[in-house]
Amino acid sequence: MGNYAAAKGLVLLNIRETTTISRVQWFLYETGLLDFEGEPDRRCTVRITAEPGIHGWADAPGATMPDAETARVIRGRLLGREIDTPSAVWRELHEAGLPLGAVGAVDIALWDLLGRVMDRPVHALLGTQRQMVGAYVTTPFNLGDPGRYAQQALACRQAGVHGFKIRPYIDSGIGATGMEGLAFPDRDMAVYEATREAVGPDFACMADNGGVYTLDQAVRVGRLLDDLRYEWFESPMPETEAWRERYVALAGQLKTPICAAEALPESYPTHVAWLASKACDVGRIDASLGGFTPCVELAVACESLGARLELRNIGLDAYPHLQLIGATSESVIKYVELSSLSREAQVLPGRTTAEPVMDAQGYVGIPQTPGMGLELDWNYIYAHRVV
To answer: What is the pLDDT of residue 181?
Structure first.
């Protein structure tokens, strides 16, 4: 991280333990649910055992399941190794060119293991700064007419939620090309105006356009967001290195902070480069895409740069995000993202710990149990194991 490692508010650990890693296992299992494409959903659990019999784990998307060679390399790097700073292990595995998803799941499991060895939640290892975080709710794309968005925003405000992020209209086949004619800026602006009118001037509203605008479209929409006092303008254009200079140009013309770039395939160094070059004002990352360590180190960089960081929808991978939030101040990570207003705690197949939900004041609590705070139903995982 160079100079960014000197950031003072969030300090990485350097713990030496005499316990060593004795086993690394992967379990691919069926959840009995359907994924976004209507196919049977699978999850990949990584379990790392340290002597004398302490386990740490991560429950990750099924796509993180490593092939035999990747599993062999990871085991070769970990077996017999003393418990140490997980970030050093993450960097070593990443620099070996291993798939980022598999490396990320192992990284989360190592942090969980370290917390359990120390009998402390992960946020306490980094330095706890808070016990709860305000939630905002994000809509799906193409929710309906502007009145539908406005109605949902008002319901969020009345329910005590701390903000509302709009995903407006997007062509279902666009991908991230930003090709002119596949975005709908005029329709989007109608949604932004209707929502602000419904909730008033002092309720946090955000815009997320999924990377579909041209620069000219983004400037036009962004100026409206300036007038409407939106909290940030997320992913307005494609998030690739070829578009970074256009992001710099956009950010220089708008008052509304630009939030990017969650779609970048690489881990935190690329994200830091976008922040340092003023291509964005608010960073965006997801633990399920690369692990807990990149999120921690990007938070350190954001703190050093005086920038903010936002984490993607906690979804099925809530616990690593909440641990990081617990170890940061509101000036670095202000919110946690939810996909609905539901306050009904659900226990998902393969787990015994309920998914976090917000309370009556719109806050989500930070877990206080050792490790990441997630307990698994091993009987279910063994019974529904595919590999």
So the answer is: 53
The CB density around residue 159, as the number of other CB atoms within 10 Å, is: 15
Work out the angle between the directed axes of helices 86-95 and 100-118 (0-180°, nearest 10): 160
CA 148 to CA 213: how far, in whole Å? 23
Give burial (CB, 10 Å; 0-12/13-18/19+) of 6.
exposed
DSSP letter at 183?
B
**pLDDT, tens only, 74-128:** 999 999 998 878 999 999 999 999 999 999 999 999 999 999 999 999 999 999 9
Kindly tell me the burial class for residue 104, based on how many C-beta atoms sit within 10 Å of its own C-beta (0-12, 13-18, 19 or more): buried
Question: Reduced to 3 states, what is the DSSP secondary structure of residue 348?
Answer: coil
Strand partners, 61: 43
Ramachandran angles phi, psi of 309, nearest 5°:
-130, 140
Name, in order, each residue with C-beta under 8 angstroms of 312's C-beta and a sequence gap of 6 or more.
262, 284, 285, 286, 288, 321, 337
**229 burial class (0-12, 13-18, 19+ CB within 10 angstroms)?**
middle
Could you give the CA distance from residue 70 to residue 46 in angstroms, rounded to a whole number? 13
What are the chain's domains?
Answer: 2-120+377-383 (3.30.390.10), 125-365 (3.20.20.120)
β pairing state of 163-166 and 363-365: unpaired
User: 10 Å Cβ neighbour count for 30?
Assistant: 18
Other CB atoms within 10 Å distance of the CB of residue 341? 17
Task: Look up the pTM and report it.
Answer: 0.91
Beta bridge partners of 27: 45
Residue 311: strand, helix, or coil: strand
pLDDT tens, residue by residue, 173-184: 544 444 445 799
Q: How far is CA 252 from CA 50, 148, 223, 280, 384, in A?
A: 50, 33, 12, 10, 52
For residue 224, give both structure tokens.
């409206």
The whole-angstrom separation of Cα 108 and Cα 358 is 24
Q: Token digits for 330?
A: 């509101």
- The secondary structure of residue 192, as a DSSP letter, is H
Q: What is the DSSP letter of 371?
A: B
